[in-house]
Design a protein that fits this description.
Layout: E1 3-6, H1 10-23, H2 32-40, E2 44-50, E3 56-65, E4 68-76, H3 85-96, E5 101-107, H4 117-129, E6 133-141, E7 144-151, H5 157-168, H6 170-173, E8 176-180
Parallel strand pairs: 4-5
Antiparallel strand pairs: 1-2, 2-3, 3-4, 5-7, 6-7, 6-8
Length: 181
């Protein structure tokens, strides 16, 4: 049985940070000290995923605002991938937030000429199999075309942008624009 818990001690945070640094491209990462600061302000969570032996196997980093929960970063440790852990984590995560609206950003699958198109399609299907659906709009996030997928309700572009602005400030939100409706 998997456990999702807040990463507060140095050992947990180090494991989360190591996976964060290795799992996401530099262009997609926020400075980790910024995430720590937002957690201290109550605007973000840094969650550690552990297996039944209490071994670290993944991370979730969220941004929180009103009834919205943005899954900002979600990664499963390389050794644990492909075993169904990702789906189990999403189920636990969605149960954790009850009736809050949960959403995330994925690289757009609209163009089939895009780099790593098959990977992007598999990622989208993974979230769809786990109850997420796509919003009717696309955004440009730091110049990258993204789809917004939600669970437990719709999230408008205005709500999405407001969350980014309130949690991360204009430094981040000013680099997000509505691309297609």
């Amino acid at each position: 049985m998997l456990v999702i818990k807040e990463a507060f001690n140095d050992t947990q945070l180090e494991k989360v940070k190591d996976l964060y640094e290795s799992a996401f491209p530099t262009s997609e990462k926020k400075p980790f000290p910024m995430i720590l600061e937002k957690r201290e302000e109550g605007l973000a969570e840094i969650l550690s995923i552990e297996d039944e032996n209490r071994q670290f196997c993944g991370l979730l980093i969220t941004a929180l605002y009103k009834d919205l929960v943005l899954i900002d970063y979600f990664a499963i440790d390389e050794e644990s991938r492909g075993s169904g852990i990702g789906s189990e984590v999403l189920k636990l995560f969605c149960n954790r937030y009850g009736n809050k609206r949960i959403f995330l950003e994925i690289e757009s699958t609209v163009s089939d000429k895009a780099e790593n198109h098959d990977v992007k399609i598999r990622r989208k299907h993974f979230y769809e199999r786990n109850g997420f659906g796509c919003m009717s709009y696309l955004v440009l996030l730091f110049g990258v075309e993204m789809e917004i997928m939600t669970y437990n309700g719709r999230v408008s572009y205005e709500e999405y942008h407001e969350l980014l602005d309130k949690v991360y400030g204009e430094k981040i939100s000013s680099h997000v624009i509505l691309f297609k409706e």
